[in-house]
Amino acid sequence: MRNQDEYEYEYDPRRDGRARRAEYDGRRPSRRKKRRRFPFWTLPVILALLGALGYAYLYAQDQMAAYAQFQKTVAAVSGETFYPGVRIDGIDLGGKTMQEARQLLENHETAEMQGFEVFLTDGQQTWRIASDTMDLAWNTDMLLQEAYALGRSGTLEERYAAVKRLESMGAYYDSVYTYDKTQVREMCDALAEQFYVECIDARVVAFDVANRSFAFSDEQTGRRLDADALYETVIGQLDAGAQGVTIPLPIEQVTPSVTRAQLESNYGLITSFTTKTTENSNRNRNIQLAAEALNGQMLDANGGTISFNTCTGERTKEKGYKEAAAIAGGASVDEVGGGVCQVATTLFNALLRADCSIVKRYPHAWPANYVPRGEDATVDWPGVDLVMRNDGVAPLFIASWYENQRVTVEVYGLSLGEGVAIDLASETIYVDKVREEDTVYNYNPNLKVGAMNQIKKAHEGYRTQTYKIWYQDGQEVRREAFYTSDYRKINPTYEYNDGQGGLR
């Protein structure tokens, strides 16, 4: 093969003629040019370029289409109006601004203001509760914000997809209103207060201790309106959108639990207790004064108490009290007011049999001889006191007096029950005997030489158990351990002067 750069000679009459002429003219004939062949090696390059141009064209077309779609997407999600398909209360908000949508819904709310209406009645008066008298609050602002937010979150593609779903499927909201339930509560409470009439039981208003008679007040039937029940009923009707419903007020009569007739038939003497005194006139005078101080005293119901020392006060000569035998320091001595412990003991026994409780009580240094062992009560001004409590539902009244060497305490009030009575019984459960070797001798140089005086008598020590016994028509029905009493042993004590400085 010939190289493509070589030239071929071809016959050309014109060139041949010019050559011969040149020979005649003495010039050298020129060589003919070689013909250039087509560069086939450029074909792949050309094809590649054409492919690239075609791809670039197609790519440009796709980009233009994508850009057009992007512009369409942006246009679809842009704007500050609600997207098509959004409805609240059936109102199409598509293309509406927030202000326009709010105005449309406000007009709708005005038309829907007659949401409920109920009437309350007691049969004579009527009270109206309606939506136009209440503070209503609609949730439209919340719905508007929620509906406006549709299609406005996520990526551009997600927003566009949401908008397209709205166009095809829509979004529907129904507004609701709420009302101020405290207004209903206040109305119910006000009606309850208006219709309230206190139920009052008959009660004892006075006790005439001289005539042993009671004065009673009349009972009063009450009335009440159940505000809670009324509130629940009204709220239920309002929430259901009731129209024209009438609700009767739940008013009920409240019957007294205690009537005057009941008191008159059940009040009277509960118990009486009497102790016999001595012939000592001073002592009996003291007992009389203390009994008079207790006469007419009252113990309030449900925990009312009585204090012996409070009732009598300090027993002094100025009040008429005299010197009489009393126990002090384990020995019998004369002191002003001696003997009043017998009145305290009589009161103690009477109130126990009226079902009262012991708050404070002390036994004597040794058992008293006017009541069974374990059933006495001693007092001394101001610290040693007798205090009793009334745990019953009715007050108790005391009548007490001294007459013919007897002191009596009566307790009046609400009966313990038909045929019911209370009594006490005591037993000694321990004895501490006095032994001869326990005798005490105290030297007293102030005594006459050779003198010996007994200053304390011997008294055995005891522990007693007292029982409270319930009777029904004279038959024992219950016995319970009530309290114990301790009497300390007192050894015989003497003082003497043997003239030898107490060498005994």
Walkthrough of the structure:
With 504 residues, the protein is of the alpha+beta class. Helix content is 30%, strand content 30%. It has eleven helices and 27 strands. The strands form ten sheets. A four-stranded antiparallel beta sheet has the order 13-21-20-14. The relative contact order is 0.08.
What keyword list fits this structure?
504 residues; alpha+beta; 4-stranded antiparallel β-sheet; 3-stranded mixed β-sheet; 11 helices; disordered N terminus
Short description:
With 504 residues, the chain is of the alpha+beta class. It is built from eleven helices and 27 strands. Helix content is 30%, strand content 30%.
Shape estimate: elongated
User: Which assembly state applies to the chains in this document?
Assistant: single chain
- What is the average of the pLDDT values? 85
In whole angstroms, how far apart are the ends? 175 Å
* Helix content percent band: 25-40%
Provide the low-confidence segments as ranges. 1-11
The total beta strand count reads 27
Strand order in space, largest sheet: 13-21-20-14
The secondary structure category is alpha+beta
Proportion of strand residues: 25-35%
Mind describing the biggest β-sheet? Answer: 4 strands, antiparallel
Instruction: Please work out how many helical segments DSSP would assign.
Output: 11
Rg computed from alpha carbons, rounded to a whole number of angstroms:
60 Å
Describe the secondary structure blueprint for this structure.
Blueprint: H1 13-24, H2 43-77, E1 86-88, E2 91-92, H3 98-111, E3 117-121, E4 126-130, E5 136-138, H4 140-148, H5 156-169, E6 171-173, E7 177-179, H6 181-195, E8 204-208, E9 213-216, E10 222-225, H7 227-239, E11 243-248, E12 251-254, H8 260-266, E13 267-276, H9 281-294, E14 298-299, E15 304-307, H10 308-312, E16 323-328, E17 331-336, H11 340-352, E18 357-360, E19 387-390, E20 396-402, E21 406-414, E22 420-432, E23 440-443, E24 452-456, E25 461-472, E26 475-487, E27 493-496
Parallel strand pairs: 1-6, 3-11, 23-27
Antiparallel strand pairs: 1-2, 3-4, 5-7, 8-9, 10-12, 13-21, 14-20, 15-19, 16-17, 18-19, 20-21, 22-25, 24-27, 25-26
Helix pairs in contact: 2-5, 3-4, 6-7, 9-11
